[in-house]
From TrEMBL:
This is histidine kinase. PROSITE patterns: HAMP, HIS_KIN. CDD domains: HAMP (cd06225), HisKA (cd00082). It catalyses: ATP + protein L-histidine = ADP + protein N-phospho-L-histidine. It comes from the Bacteria. It comes from Pseudoalteromonas shioyasakiensis. GO terms for molecular function: ATP binding. Its main location: membrane. Residues 306-537 form the Histidine kinase domain. The chain crosses the membrane at residues 17-38, 167-185. It is found in: Membrane.
């Protein structure tokens, strides 16, 4: 379907085009001129502030060297007559701490003092502009040694006033040129639009009265003459086309009747095909729901089997130990009743009892740890409140806290994260996720303590933050890559692995942190996990 733009006349279009081109050219020219002028003015201010800063640094050599801040304060008062200077600080190097300390200062009339800039020396060794001022720090060097620093803050009031005056003048000049161009465009559009109006009136007459014998007259514009000639040829041919059109109309009427019949037949066939497609889709939805339910039941069966297997072993061992202890107790009771109990029997009973109690304790404790792990799988998102954390600091703290647990594999841990990356999230679940990944690499990925590497890469975009976790271990077996986040999936069954670690990581990331985690199945070597967290308002 064609799209029609807002209608306009050639008079308005011509005037608007000339005005628009003129305005764009003026704006571009004035903008470039203003930019270059302001840049030159800023360059002059930088040169001036640099020269004044170097003069102050040179004059302050002796006063800083002999700790004569009174003389330096009197000398700085002479800058009251320099409108550019607003604040001056002089810092000396403390002999004990070798750190810069405040020595003397100057504040221009009606200018408030500024905070001490000792912590910003490295950042202000080059001039730094703000909206209202310029700041610069220059070292005070005596015989090749830096004995202090000069901080100078200059005001940009005059530069801003100059820019405002220039903008006003440029606006007035633009308005004057636009008015002048407007009147010139009016003259041009009359010369072009009048012959076009005559052609328009001719066409309206032909359309209304069907007078195809009339012809357009020549004008003093070549393009309009070409248009008039083409119009005259069109009028001559139109009469012939009208006669031919009457004949074609009858043929089209017959074709339309035949086409309607074919359309009705195709419509019926299409309706039947659509109904068949709907029936097929309904069956597919039923099959899909059945498959989903089967997957749920299979996952539930696997979880129940895993829970039964993991918990049944320590409980069975505990029952065995308690049974043995009961038998030993019955035997010692019989010997006591028969008065055949000896110290050797009692000592052996005590030793066996301690061994059985240790067995019962260890296995009950193992069962308690498994139950605690099962409880952690159901992550509670409301346990912790989101706070703003520095991601580089959190990664460093996690690695430091896990140092004693991972040092027997001696991995080289690399953190590629900017120091200013912050995120609004729950630090507890995120820390638990990172600790579990480190523990998983140490337990499952590394077979010895040689050439082991773990890397954290942090990437940030407008809406999310990604943490890429790499290790150069043996990787994940292909048979369990697609099920690595399922519960009770482990390669260390019977060796202390419960298969709940990565499932807990998945629940923490997706539920507590509101993000996502995937395993890179295309990794050439080692393991590669990608954690994606959404950025909330206030994240940096």
């Amino acid at each position: 379907m064609p799209i029609f733009s807002t209608q306009t006349s050639i008079r308005k279009a011509l005037t608007n085009a000339v005005m628009l081109v003129t305005a764009l050219c003026l704006s571009l020219s004035i903008s470039i001129s203003t930019y270059l002028d302001v840049k030159e003015q800023k360059s002059l201010i930088v040169d001036k502030i640099s020269i004044l800063s170097k003069i102050i640094a040179y004059n302050a050599q002796i006063t800083v060297l002999f700790d004569d801040n009174e003389t330096e304060s009197e000398r700085l008062k002479s800058f009251e007559s320099v409108p550019l200077i607003k604040n001056i600080h002089i810092y000396s190097i403390d002999e004990l701490s070798n750190e810069p300390v405040f020595f003397s200062s100057f504040n221009a009339n009606r200018t408030p003092p500024v905070p001490i800039k000792v912590g910003s020396i490295d950042n202000l060794l080059e001039p730094r502009f703000t909206d209202k001022d310029i700041e610069l720090i220059t070292p005070i060097v005596y015989e090749g040694d830096t004995i202090g620093y000069v901080y100078v803050r200059g005001g940009l009031d005059r530069l801003n006033q100059y820019i405002n005056r220039k903008i006003i003048i440029d606006i007035l000049l633009t308005l004057f040129v636009l008015v002048l161009v407007y009147f010139v465009a009016r003259r041009i559009q009359k010369r072009i639009a009048n012959p076009i109006d005559e052609l328009s009136n001719l066409l309206q007459d032909v359309s209304k009265n069907h007078n195809y014998d009339t012809r357009a007259q020549k004008t003093n514009i070549d393009e309009i003459n070409q248009l008039a000639g083409s119009l005259n040829i069109m009028l001559a041919r139109t009469q012939k086309q009208i006669e031919r059109h009457e004949k074609d109309k009858q043929e089209i009427k017959q074709l339309n009747q035949s086409l309607e019949e074919k359309v009705n037949q195709r419509t019926i066939a299409l309706r039947e095909a659509n109904q068949e497609l709907l029936n097929t889709l309904e069956r597919m939805h039923q099959y899909q729901n059945q498959i989903v339910e089967n997957e749920k039941m299979a996952s539930l069966g696997q979880m129940v089997a895993g829970v039964a297997h993991e918990v049944n072993t320590p409980i069975g061992l505990g029952i065995t130990g308690s049974t043995l202890l009961r038998d030993k107790l019955a035997e010692i009771h019989t010997q006591f009743e028969q008065k055949t109990l000896t110290s050797a029997h009692l000592k052996r009973f005590i030793n066996d009892g301690i061994e059985n109690l240790d067995l019962i304790y260890r296995n009950l404790n193992r069962a308690a740890e498994l139950v605690s792990s099962f409880k952690k799988v159901a992550v509670n998102q409301d346990v912790e409140v989101s706070t703003k954390i520095n991601l580089n600091n959190l990664l460093s703290d996690v690695v430091m806290s896990m140092r004693s647990e991972i040092q027997y594999r001696n991995p080289k841990v690399t953190i590629n994260c900017s120091n200013d990356v912050s995120i609004e999230t729950k630090s507890g679940p995120l820390q638990q996720v990172l600790q579990q990944l480190l523990s998983n690499s140490v337990i499952h990925a590394f077979s010895d303590d040689q050439n082991n590497e773990i890397t954290f890469n942090v990437e940030r975009n407008e809406s999310s933050l990604s943490i890429h976790y790499f290790d150069n271990g043996i990787g994940v077996e292909k048979s369990i890559r697609k099920r690595i986040f399922d519960p009770f999936v482990t390669t260390k069954r019977g060796e202390g692995g419960s298969g709940l670690g990565m499932h807990l990581v998945y629940n923490l990331v997706t539920q507590a942190l509101g993000g996502s985690i995937v395993y890179d199945e295309l990794a050439d070597e080692g393991a590669h996990f990608i954690i994606t967290l959404p950025l909330q308002e206030g994240a940096a």
